[in-house]
């Protein structure tokens, strides 16, 4: 399909899809399928005036949505979940068109989590109470302090391309449940599901203007227009640490709150007493899930020297058994990288690892999958030994299906190696000694530490990172705190 015959992906502003100019003189860009490299759609890029319309529409929607009773707001969220369920396969198809990921993953993780996000945050907001304090005063009187929580206002939601629908609904569901209006800027790589979600939210009864989607890039495009708009009351952002830092500078003059879920360079720690089969299954997921393009993915595997050879051999064997292939083939386990540009970045780290003297246990190249797939951004699952924490491939986020295996001798050494990073998102600890599991997990300088599992989530628990990995937490009550502002009322009794 050529760009001219491809379908349009449109912006959704103030309750309506915006038709691109009929003579196509508007700014637009091509959306390619990462599995084939073929153009599948043309995306209407929002200009500054359209972003302004979105923010203005969002502000006027606040007048009704912020005042809508909680039980009605949460009913809209539950209807949205039901509608996504009814149109499940449409969302699966849109997720695949966006990312090229395997159909089984799109069904079991991405779209399933979108439903869970809407239902969980409807529950969380419906059950939320508020703190109050009785204050003893001199002379025996008391004061009652209680806080009422109000929506933050118009929230800019800026999201990346790796789990586009999952990460979008993770923010949109609590923001809307709390009575905010949102202006969403999906990644330029994955414009599809955010656009489809607009239909669902409209049909679920969300008032016009409460959910807007504007398409485009970062600098000099929709991302910058949204985050620099004076009508934005807060920014929730998931993406790279460098972009997060940039967004923080953009909002600094107006002192707006930010919630940042940024990059990671996550460690796994495998102790000599670990259950090796369970550990190898877990590591295979944590290194290679979504082709390594999950912020939580493991790129550093520290292994006790007594089991190093077994873990290295076992993980390499499992990496070789992953099935790269057509997204719609149910047997496919592993999709492409998101783009040729991202593949160039990942291959740059292959070259750096080689220069640093790494031994390639498996992978290290570009697979030949044949036919139309050869135009896609495919890469081989790759494992290295022979690197240290001083090497750039062990220090910098690669965001691909790749990990370095490094031996350790003592628990203290393992903890020090794992914490020797500027990031602080996630870690996983593999051991059958439960005391050690708790001890080491608690010693990790990260937002989330797992013991004998990975990416197991309870959406009510806090999620986020320290250091370069972010600012703040979302999930459960943490989301309510970000998406609302309290007004404390103090009454002398
Ligand atoms: P990115 O930072 O390049 O882009 C993220 C979003 O920001 C995109 O929508 C992009 O268009 C927009 N953007 C870029 N420049 C901007 C600017 N100047 N102003 C406003 N918006 C701008 O990230 P990416 O490549 O899309 O995603 C991969 C990164 O996301 C990785 O670093 C990964 O670790 C991180 N990530 C973190 C989490 C988490 O929960 N911590 C989850 C998923 C991904």
Automatic annotation (TrEMBL):
Coiled coil segments of this chain: none
Plastid as UniProt keyword: no
Pfam family for this entry, one: Aldedh
Domain Aldehyde dehydrogenase as annotated: residue spans: 25-488
Residues the record marks as active site: 261
PANTHER family documented for this protein: 2-AMINOMUCONIC SEMIALDEHYDE DEHYDROGENASE (PTHR43720)
Protein's UniProt name: Aldehyde dehydrogenase
């Amino acid at each position: 399909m050529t760009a001219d015959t491809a379908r349009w992906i449109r912006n959704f502003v103030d309750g309506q899809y915006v038709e691109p100019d009929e003579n196509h003189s508007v700014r637009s860009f091509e959306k390619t399928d990462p599995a084939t490299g073929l153009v599948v759609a043309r995306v209407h890029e929002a200009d500054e005036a359209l972003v302004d319309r979105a923010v203005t529409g969002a502000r006027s929607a606040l007048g009704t949505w912020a005042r809508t009773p909680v039980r009605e707001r949460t009913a809209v969220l539950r209807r949205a979940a039901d509608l996504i369920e009814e149109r499940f396969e449409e969302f699966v198809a849109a997720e695949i068109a966006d990312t090229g990921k395997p159909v089984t993953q799109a069904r079991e993780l991405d779209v399933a989590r979108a439903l869970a996000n809407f239902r969980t945050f409807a529950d969380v907001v419906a059950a939320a109470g508020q703190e109050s304090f009785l204050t003893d005063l001199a002379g025996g009187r008391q004061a009652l302090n209680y806080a009422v929580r109000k929506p933050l206002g118009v929230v800019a939601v800026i999201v990346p391309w790796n789990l586009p629908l999952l990460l979008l609904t993770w923010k949109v569901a609590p923001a809307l449940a709390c009575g905010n209006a949102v202006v969403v800027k999906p990644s330029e790589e994955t414009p599809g599901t955010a656009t489809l979600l607009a239909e669902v939210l409209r049909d679920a009864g969300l008032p016009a203007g409460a959910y807007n989607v504007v398409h485009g890039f970062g600098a000099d495009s929709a991302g910058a227009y949204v985050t620099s708009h004076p009508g934005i009351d807060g920014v929730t952002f998931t993406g790279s640490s460098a972009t997060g830092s940039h967004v923080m500078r953009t909002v600094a003059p107006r002192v707006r709150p930010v919630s940042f879920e940024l990059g990671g360079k996550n460690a796994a720690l495998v102790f000599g007493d670990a259950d090796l089969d369970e550990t190898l299954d877990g590591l295979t997921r944590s290194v290679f899930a979504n082709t390594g393009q999950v912020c939580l993915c493991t790129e550093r595997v520290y292994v006790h020297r007594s089991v190093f050879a077994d873990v290295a051999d076992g993980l390499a064997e499992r990496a070789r058994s992953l099935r790269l292939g057509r997204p719609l083939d149910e047997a496919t386990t592993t999709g492409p990288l998101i783009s040729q540009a991202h593949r160039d970045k990942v291959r740059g780290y292959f070259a750096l690892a080689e220069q640093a003297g790494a031994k390639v246990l498996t992978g290290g190249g570009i697979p030949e999958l044949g036919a139309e797939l050869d135009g896609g951004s495919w890469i081989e699952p790759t494992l290295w030994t022979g690197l240290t924490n001083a090497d750039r491939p062990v220090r910098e986020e690669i965001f691909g299906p790749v990990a370095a295996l490094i031996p350790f001798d003592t628990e203290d050494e393992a903890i020090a190696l794992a914490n020797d990073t500027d990031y602080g998102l996630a870690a996983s600890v593999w051991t059958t000694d439960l005391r050690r599991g708790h001890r080491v997990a608690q010693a990790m300088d990260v937002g989330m530490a797992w013991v004998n599992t990975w990416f197991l989530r309870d959406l009510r628990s806090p999620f986020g990172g320290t250091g370069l990995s972010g600012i703040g937490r979302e999930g459960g009550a943490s989301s309510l705190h970000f998406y609302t502002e309290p007004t404390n009322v103090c009454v002398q009794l």
